[in-house]
Design brief:
two-stranded antiparallel ribbon, 3-stranded mixed sheet, single chain, elongated, mainly alpha
Length: 576
């Protein structure tokens, strides 16, 4: 079936070759429409990565074909760079302490969620293929190859959702560990499957031993290259941490160099970048760790390019009815197998309940390695099942790349891990004055104990000082109700010095004019700036009419931020 949208636009809008001037224009088209799609889907409460992919589908092989296949292939270095950056940041999450803590759990779940879908997909696909084709050897070959490929999980879409929703906790840690390692299991399963399938189809493929040697070379060679470049980068940046631009240059240079060497040697650039990140986070000097934050700030535009190109490469118009049925069976079997296997592994290793219940939702995405293995199958079995394998994986990737990120969001949301990967600075930036509290007592309230009348006696104010947390008081005018002044801790100390005479004083006698005020809707960074600029620790809170609602004290704001971090850490401890 041909693409009905391909002829909608004039020929001038179709880019079939990548020329110098067109390159910049194409980058602009991809970045602009990708970012637009991400924002639209984000507004719809759908992960932004789905928007990137949908925009890619619309402008690529399945849509208006603004990007023709030749152009998409010419832009493939963008995919290589993006996957290397993703691998680097995943490696940064694999801290040795976490591996010691969750290592047994990782292995148990990894085996379950990789091996179980292999057998489920194998039996289901073989049965359905035999029903339509009436050829036992071909049906079994389809089942074995697709069963091996289904073990792989796409790290890119999964990690993008985890980063977008700032997740942290046992489920996030386990998900990152699993998606980092199950590609290696898929490679081994494919080696086994292709060895069995080759004689069934009358081919002369490599022996099992030769394939395993190639896989070992791929894995250990990639890890070695990543470790070497990790040491080089760590040595280069250890004395440059004050110059963020230069640190970022060294970091990206190391990642790109390791990627380039792997491409030349035919090794796995994702695994090398992951190894580089793992080395940096575990063995490099502690002061070099901010490099991960700098690289992470660099990645969003690369992710947009990558996922738009992923969508652009998918062609849904080449799938026949029989292959469509096999694709549906493949997705169903893979989902059932991943779900049952992950939960079985989690149960056996006594993983936290959130991991047992929601990890399957985070393992549905499929992309790079699965497509790569399908291309390998098309080469190994080009005169039999190879071309059909590519079409099935392409069609299923189209499905799971759209559904997978939504499922990841559902899983981490239900697990309660959304918004836990935050720092005190993050909370500061997102908090408003009217949200700050001391225990159960809001600092901004019309019933605030920190607001006193200008005619109130000092002895009454001292009683409030003794029974509440606040050290300063906003004084309201008894005539207008508006802010008249502020009484600070220094004023109260002075009244204690003069003894019984203070009993005759009123608030109006000791108050000062406030140097500044803040509003309930002000964000805390603006308030902290006033603390610094005005050299004060207490700022009255007033509404739009100047009525005092409390006092924002620096000590109270600090306490609020510390308690928020404490609550998050306590929640994480309970989850674990």
């Amino acid at each position: 079936m041909s693409d009905p949208l391909a002829q909608v636009l004039p020929q001038v809008f179709h880019f079939s070759r990548l020329q110098g001037t067109q390159f910049v224009l194409l980058l602009g088209i991809i970045m602009f429409f990708g970012a637009l799609g991400g924002r639209i889907f984000q507004k719809l409460k759908i992960p932004q990565v789905v928007g990137y992919i949908v925009m890619g589908i619309l402008i690529g092989s399945s849509g208006f074909q603004i990007l023709r296949l030749e152009t998409i292939i010419a832009l493939s270095p963008v995919n290589t760079v993006a996957l290397s950056l993703i691998g680097f940041l995943i490696g940064a999450e694999l801290k040795i302490d976490s591996i010691k803590k969750y290592g047994r759990q990782f292995v148990g779940i990894l085996i379950g969620e990789s091996i179980t879908p292999f057998f489920v997909v194998f039996f289901l696909v073989s049965f359905v293929a035999y029903t339509f084709m009436k050829d036992f050897k071909t049906a079994v070959s389809f089942g074995l190859v697709l069963g091996a490929i289904c073990a792989a999980t796409a790290p890119a879409a999964t990690t993008d959702v985890l980063k977008e929703y700032r997740t942290r906790g046992p489920l996030t840690t386990t998900t990152l560990g699993i998606v980092a390692m199950d590609d290696a299991v898929a490679l081994i399963l494919y080696a086994v499957a292709s060895t069995v399938v080759s004689p069934l189809l009358g081919g002369q493929g490599q022996s099992f031993g030769a394939q395993m040697l190639c896989i070992a070379k791929d894995i250990f060679g990639s890890v070695l290259i990543g470790g070497v470049f990790g040491a080089v980068v760590a040595f280069s940046v250890r004395n440059l941490m004050k110059d963020e631009g230069r640190v970022l240059s060294f970091g990206l240079g190391g990642i790109f160099l390791s990627t380039g060497v792997c491409v030349i040697l035919g090794l796995d650039n994702i695994l090398a970048a992951m190894s580089l990140g793992f080395f940096m986070v575990n063995f490099a000097p502690v002061k070099t760790r901010p490099i991960f934050t700098l690289v992470e700030k660099f990645t969003p535009p690369i992710y947009v390019l990558f996922f738009v190109l992923v969508g652009a490469k998918l062609n849904i118009w080449v799938v026949t009815p029989v292959l469509g049925i096999l694709a549906v069976i493949y997705v169903a079997g893979r989902t059932i197998g991943k779900t049952f296997g992950a939960r079985l592994g989690a149960r056996i290793t006594k993983a936290p309940k959130t991991v047992h219940d929601f990890l399957p939702w985070c393992l549905l995405s499929q992309a790079g390695v699965a497509i790569g293995l399908s291309i390998a199958a098309s080469s190994d079995f080009e005169n039999s099942i190879g071309p059909s394998i590519v079409l099935i994986i392409t069609a299923t990737t189209f499905i799971v790349q759209l559904v997978g990120p939504v499922c990841v969001k559902h899983g981490v949301t239900k697990a309660g891990e959304v918004g836990l990967a935050v720092t005190e600075e993050d909370i500061l930036k997102s908090s408003r004055v009217d949200e700050v509290s001391w225990g159960s007592e809001k600092l901004c309230s019309r019933e605030s104990f920190a607001v006193v009348k200008d005619t109130e006696k000092i002895c009454s104010i001292l009683t409030k000082f003794e029974t509440h947390h606040n050290q300063s008081f906003a004084v309201s005018s008894s005539e207008t109700g508006k802010l008249a002044g502020i009484i600070t801790l220094e004023h109260l100390k002075e009244t204690l010095v003069i003894g019984e005479f203070a009993d005759t004083l009123l608030a109006v006698d000791i108050m000062d004019k406030p140097v500044c005020t803040c509003r309930p809707e002000d964000f805390l960074p603006d308030v902290y700036k006033k603390f610094s600029d005005m050299d004060t620790d207490s700022i009255p809170i007033v509404d739009s009419e100047g009525i005092p609602l409390g006092v924002m004290e620096k000590i109270a704001a600090d306490h609020y931020l510390h308690m928020k971090i404490f609550e998050i850490n306590s929640k994480l401890e309970c989850m674990a």
